[in-house]
Design brief:
The structure holds two protein chains of two kinds. Chain A is α/β, with parallel strands linked by helices. Chain A has helices at residues 11-14, 34-41, 86-96, 109-118, 130-135, 176-196; strands spanning 4-6, 22-31, 56-58, 63-66, 72-76, 100-103, 121-124, 137-144, 154-169. Chain A has a single domain (4-176), classed as fumarase (Alpha-Beta Barrel), CATH 3.20.130. Helix content of chain A is 30%, strand content 28%. In chain A, strand 6 (100-103), helix 4 (109-118) and strand 7 (121-124) form a beta-alpha-beta unit. The longest helix of chain A has 21 residues, at 176-196. Chain A is globular and about 65 Å long. Chain A starts with a strand and ends in a 7-residue tail after the last helix. By secondary structure, chain B is of the alpha+beta class. Chain B folds into two domains: 3-24 and 65-148 and 276-298, 60s Ribosomal Protein L30, Chain: A (2-Layer Sandwich); 150-271, no CATH class. Helix content of chain B is 41%, strand content 21%. Chain B contains nine helices and nine strands. Chain B has helices at residues 3-22, 26-38, 42-61, 88-102, 149-152, 165-180, 198-210, 220-236, 294-298, and strands at 71-79, 128-134, 140-147, 156-160, 188-195, 249-256, 264-271, 277-282, 288-290. Chain B has a five-stranded mixed beta sheet. A four-stranded mixed beta sheet of chain B has the order 4-7-5-6. The longest helix of chain B has 20 residues, at 3-22. Classes of the chains: A alpha/beta, B alpha+beta. Chains A and B meet through helix 5 and helix 6 of A and helix 3, helix 6 and helix 8 of B.
Chain lengths: 203, 299
C-alpha cells in the first residue's frame, strides 16, 4: 500500500520513516531553490501565500504554461540537484520549520544534522522524470518572486500522491546517498588497486 | 536573404529544438531500454520504469521530457558552399526565442553574474554556437546539445604530467564520477577529451559526448581505453540516479588529439540518462534530413 504524507506535516507522520522507504505527498508544495533560499535567509523575506512551517518544499525549477483560460499549469517539473542548496539548507530548516524537502540526489552532513535536530526529512524524486511529476500536480495555486525568473520563482501547487519519493535523509540523521557513496568509493578503490596497486588520492 | 527564406530556415531550427527537447535521440532511447531490461535490483527497476514512463508520456503529450531544457548549444559544420552561411547566427537566435515560446522550453538564460533572466533563452553569447568549416560541401550539419544544470555540474578538466599516464586519467575520471555523478542523473554518458591544455581537452570532451553511443575512437588504443573505462565504471554501479544498480554509464566516448609531450590534458563532460542532442543536415535548397531521431519521423 502507498504510504502518503499529507500537509501540514506533523513530526509523527515522518518520525518512523527510514532511509530507502518510498512515500508519496498529497497537499501543498512550493518550489524553492538557490535564489529562493537566498531570498528567505539573506534578505529575510517570507512568501505571502505559503507556509514553510510543517510544509514541504521542492528543489525544482519548472516549466509552467498557460492554458486557454490564462491559468498556469505545470508542463514539466522534475527535481534539481539538492546538493547546491547544502550551504543554506540547515539554516533554512532551523528558521522555517519545514518538514519535507524534495530534490534530486543527496545532501550532506549539515542538512542531515538539521533533519535530526529539528525533525525533518529529505526525499529524492527520480531525476529527469518531469512529465511524470507534472501529472501529480492538480493545480498551480500561486507564484511569488517572479522577478527571479521562471526556474527560480516560488511556485505554489496542490499535489496528489506526488512521488515516488525515496527517503534519503531521515529524522535520525541517517543519509542514504552518503552510505551508498562509501560503497561506490570502496569499489572504485578496489578497481584502481587491482590495476595499479596502492590507495587512491583523497582529492 | 529574404524574409520568406529566413522564416523557413528559422522554422527548421525551431522544429529541431522542439524535437530535441521532447524525444530522446534514437541511440539513447535504445540504450535506456536495454539497461532497464537488464536491471534486476528492485529499487533500480522502479527508477527505470519511471524514466520509461516519462519518455512515453512526454512523447504522447508533446512536452519536454525533462523540465531542464538546458542552455542551448549549437555545433555547426558549415559547408563552404552553403548559401545561407551569413544568416546562421541570427537564425539560431530567432529559433531559440520561437522554440522557447511555443514548446515551451524553460527560459534558463540569466545575464552574466546577474540574476536577471532574459525570459527567452537568448542573450549575449546565448545560444552558444561553435562553427567548423566543411570544405567542398554545400550542406549545414547542425547539432544541438541541451546542456542541463545537473548534468553539467560534474564537468571539469585538468592537465596531468605524462608519467601519470593511464592511471592518472582513470583516477581523475573515476573520482569525478563517484563524487559528482550520483547527482547528475546516471546512467551517464561520459565524454572524455585528451589533449594538451585544460580548455582544448574540455572542448574535445564535448565533441566526444556529441558522438552517438556505441561509436568508437578510430585509434585502437583509445578505443580500448573507452571500453576499459566503461567496464570499470559499471563495476562501481551508481546508476540509476545514484541509488545503485548494475551500471554507471550508458557509454564512454573519448576524443583524443595529438598533444604536447610534456602534458596530458584531460577533459570530462557528462550527460544524463536523458541526454538531449539533435542532429540534422540542411541542404542548400533548405530541404533537410533528420539524423538523430529517425525513429520519431519514420514511426
Amino acid at each position: 500500500m502507498k504510504k502518503v504524507i499529507t500537509t501540514p506535516i506533523t513530526y509523527d507522520q515522518i518520525k518512523e520513516l527510514r532511509i530507502g522507504d518510498t512515500v508519496y505527498l498529497s497537499g501543498m508544495l512550493a518550489t524553492c531553490r538557490d535564489a529562493g533560499h537566498h531570498r528567505v535567509l539573506a534578505e529575510g523575506v517570507m512568501p505571502q501565500h505559503f507556509e514553510f512551517r510543517d510544509g514541504a518544499i521542492f528543489h525544482a525549477g519548472p516549466i509552467v504554461g498557460k492554458d486557454e483560460n490564462g491559468r498556469d499549469y505545470m508542463v514539466s517539473i522534475g527535481p534539481t540537484t539538492s546538493r547546491r542548496m547544502e550551504k543554506l539548507e540547515a539554516q533554512f530548516i532551523r528558521e522555517t520549520g519545514v518538514r519535507l524537502i524534495i530534490g534530486k540526489g543527496g545532501m550532506m552532513k549539515d542538512t542531515a544534522e538539521a533533519c535530526r535536530k529539528y525533525g525533518a526529512i529529505h526525499c529524492a524524486f527520480p531525476g529527469g522524470c518531469a512529465v511524470v511529476a507534472a501529472q501529480a500536480v492538480e493545480e498551480v495555486t500561486g507564484c511569488e518572486w517572479e522577478d527571479l525568473g521562471m526556474p527560480e520563482a516560488l511556485w505554489i501547487m496542490r499535489v496528489k500522491e506526488f512521488g515516488p519519493l525515496v527517503v534519503s535523509i531521515d529524522t535520525t540523521g541517517a543519509n542514504l546517498f552518503d552510505e551508498r557513496k562509501i560503497e561506490y568509493r570502496k569499489r572504485m578503490n578496489e578497481v584502481l588497486e587491482g590495476e595499479f596497486g596502492g590507495g587512491c588520492s583523497a582529492k | 536573404m529574404n524574409r520568406i527564406i529566413k522564416d523557413k530556415f528559422v522554422n527548421i531550427v525551431a522544429d529541431m529544438t522542439s524535437m530535441t527537447g521532447i524525444y530522446l535521440p534514437d541511440d539513447v532511447e535504445k540504450k535506456l531500454r536495454e539497461l532497464a531490461a537488464e536491471e534486476t535490483k528492485p529499487e533500480a527497476v522502479t527508477m527505470y520504469e519511471c524514466m520509461i514512463r516519462d519518455i512515453e508520456m512526454a512523447a504522447e503529450l508533446g512536452r519536454p521530457l525533462c523540465q531542464d531544457t538546458g542552455a542551448l548549444q549549437f555545433f555547426a559544420d558549415v559547408g563552404t558552399g552553403f548559401p545561407y552561411m551569413d544568416a546562421i547566427e541570427s537564425v539560431i537566435h530567432e529559433a531559440a526565442i520561437k522554440a522557447t515560446r511555443e514548446i515551451p522550453l524553460r527560459p534558463n538564460v540569466v545575464e552574466p553574474l546577474g540574476e536577471y533572466n532574459t525570459g527567452n533563452n537568448e542573450g549575449y553569447g546565448a545560444p552558444y554556437i561553435q562553427y567548423r568549416l566543411d570544405p567542398g560541401s554545400s550542406d549545414l550539419r547542425l547539432r544541438l546539445y541541451m546542456a542541463g544544470g545537473g548534468s553539467s555540474l560534474p564537468g571539469r578538466s585538468k592537465v596531468l604530467m605524462p608519467l601519470e599516464g593511464i592511471e592518472g586519467i582513470k583516477r581523475f575520471v573515476y573520482e569525478t564520477v563517484v563524487e559528482w555523478g550520483t547527482n547528475a542523473c546516471p546512467p551517464l554518458q561520459l565524454g572524455i577529451g585528451l589533449g594538451t591544455c585544460a580548455e582544448t581537452s574540455a572542448l574535445l570532451s564535448k565533441m566526444a559526448l556529441l558522438r552517438p553511443l556505441g561509436t568508437h575512437s578510430s585509434f585502437p588504443k583509445v578505443a580500448k581505453l573507452e571500453e576499459e573505462i566503461q567496464r570499470e565504471l559499471d563495476s562501481i554501479g551508481i546508476a540509476p540516479l545514484g541509488f545503485g544498480g548494475s551500471h554507471t554509464v550508458m557509454g564512454v566516448n573519448i576524443e583524443a588529439a595529438g598533444h604536447h609531450p610534456a602534458t596530458i590534458g584531460v577533459g570530462i563532460t557528462t550527460g544524463c540518462w536523458a541526454t538531449r542532442r539533435g542532429e540534422i543536415v540542411i541542404h542548400d535548397d533548405l530541404s533537410y534530413d533528420v539524423i538523430s531521431h529517425k525513429r520519431v519521423f519514420e514511426g
